[in-house]
Amino acid sequence: MRQAWQLPELPKVSAILQRFRKTLARKRLAGRDFSIISNNCWGAHVYQALNRQFSTPFIDLFISPTSYLRLLSEFPQCLSLPLIFKTVSDEAWINRARAAHCVQWPIGSLGNGIEIQFMHYQSETEASEKWKRRAARLSLQPERQFFKFCDRDGYTAEQMALFDGLPFRNKVFFTTRQDCPARCAVKVPLNPDGLALSRISPTYFDTVDWLNGGSGGVKWWARWLNCI
User: Are the beta carbons of 118 and 127 closer than 8 angstroms?
Assistant: First the structure.
């Protein structure tokens, strides 16, 4: 007797749906390269979901709001500066977080108080090699550079305003503030780390549309179909 057909288990359905969403997102993405500049690993998960090579050095790391705004204020000139390493951060909260972490991650510096926290790297050598290799892939076309910031790690309203005023064509600022006045703001219910944000942001921001030159506004169908 033929066995009655049954629905797959819920985890299997979820895995199938995720594969479908990723396939659709990759088909929607225009063929041009893009470089995401992000203050945490949100951008890395976008590249992974789209199965694209990292065309940016801002992968598997985080940058404090203070360092990030200093970097962006002189971008891309800062990326041409030599990356050196230091044993202690200029910011006390980073030293506390690093001490509580299981691994003392490398701290890179581009000078002028700009620190790069290589949180997911095991050594200065690994961080330096990958930073240089990926920095060489950064798009030199301003219209293909995409800047992301969010209200984490002690950001201030002044820093948000500075980011909003930067003369970059493509900017997004994820915030939990429902009254946020920034023109590039995208409101989310919570602002977790980069990985978790990459999972919830599709409901509020269409990253593929943004990378294709659009505003990132979410269409009704994209809330279900889009994966990033």
Answer: yes
